[in-house]
Amino acid sequence: MGWVEKRNNGYRMVVDVPDMFGKRKRKTKMVYTNSKRQAEKELIIFEAEQMKTVVNHKNIKFKDFIEQWKELYVNKHLEETTKMNYISHIDKRITPVFGEMYLRDITTLQLVTFIDGLKKIKKPQEDAGQATKLYVYRVLRSMFNTASEWYDLDPNPMKKVNKPKENENKNVNTYTEEESIKILKALQHENIQFKTMITLAFTSGMRKGELLGLEWKRVDLTNNLIHIEQSIPIVRKGEAVIKSPKTKGSVRTIAIPQYVTEELKLYKEFYYKEKAESEEWYSERDFLFCNLRYKGFIGKPMYPKVISERWKNFISKVEGVRRIRFHDIRHTSVSILINRGIHAKVISNLVGHSKIGTTMDVYGHLMRTAEIKAAETFGDVFNTPTS
């Protein structure tokens, strides 16, 4: 419904249009003419334009739906790291392709083609990995499932998109025991904070976020125990995002070797000396692996990316070892324990898996290597000549 109102310099056009909740909202626009008839003609055009903007699944652009979805779903229901990953894929991959399209016009074939043809962001000439395709599939599925609920979108084009296959052999890189020993020896030439952190990573199976979230009050140097109760997956503008560990099983107490306890004692002495002598300390909490370098952030948790960069720089200088990710130190810890015959249940508890099945899924191929060794052991015992 619309009408015109006389003003000194023309007519004001007024239109009432419903929003997405059915409430009427008033839109106005001036038309500079002395003719009421002309103003009423302009009103017809103005009213038609405004009705086009009524939000429903028939004409909402995908980019507008995305903003609503971010605000009402992503920001309110997802954890920080998941939120960050979702938004990264949306902004870098999904919006540039589908943003200007209308929600109703996106087809199953377009989605299948899009997922199948994904490329690496930094190397657009190379195909994206299966893990990336699977993640984008999950983001799109979540988006269109929500669109179906909010806007009665039918059919849902994602319903007939097949889930990308997961790699049968997951990319789990590990160091050998010989490589690990070389690395631990090379650490003796590094600063005490980095040396302690990497040593603890190798001998505990802790995740990067768990190392960053570790506080001195949770380290029992008398009984050689560490209580893992929190994680710092990301740091934003110098402020840590502290959360509970990844799963229920991730809240745990682990034992550490005596020699690691001795290293921690030395590092603790160094840590509190640094704190006492510092003119600036920006945290009331005593995180083991905090920032000790950058002015304005001293005492605050280190950025996860900084750990990865320092690891990358360090490992590039160690001769005779491969360059693999920081997270693969955790895989290496598990690999060593498997090769030494430690039971899968013990390993599962150590690394914080809520179910032993998770350990078997991730490290099953390593378990099979151990099974072959077990079979060979039976052969050594029972394959004896009979008289």
What's the arrangement of secondary structure elements?
Layout: E1 2-7, E2 10-18, E3 24-31, H1 36-52, H2 62-77, H3 80-98, H4 108-116, H5 130-151, H6 177-186, H7 192-204, H8 208-212, E4 219-220, E5 225-228, E6 231-236, E7 239-243, E8 252-255, H9 258-277, H10 304-315, H11 328-339, H12 344-351, H13 356-382
Antiparallel strand pairs: 1-2, 2-3, 4-5, 5-8, 6-7
Brief overview:
With 387 residues, the chain is mostly helical. 49% of the residues lie in helices and 11% in strands. The chain folds into three domains: 2-52; 62-151, DNA polymerase, domain 1, CATH 1.10.150; 177-372, Intergrase catalytic core (hpI Integrase, Chain A, Orthogonal Bundle), CATH 1.10.443.10.
Notes on the structure:
The chain is mainly α and 387 residues long. It has three domains: 51 residues; 90 residues, DNA polymerase, domain 1 (Orthogonal Bundle); 196 residues, hpI Integrase, Chain A (Orthogonal Bundle), CATH 1.10.443.10. It contains 13 helices and eight strands. Helix 12 runs antiparallel to helix 13. The model has no long low-confidence stretch (mean pLDDT 86).
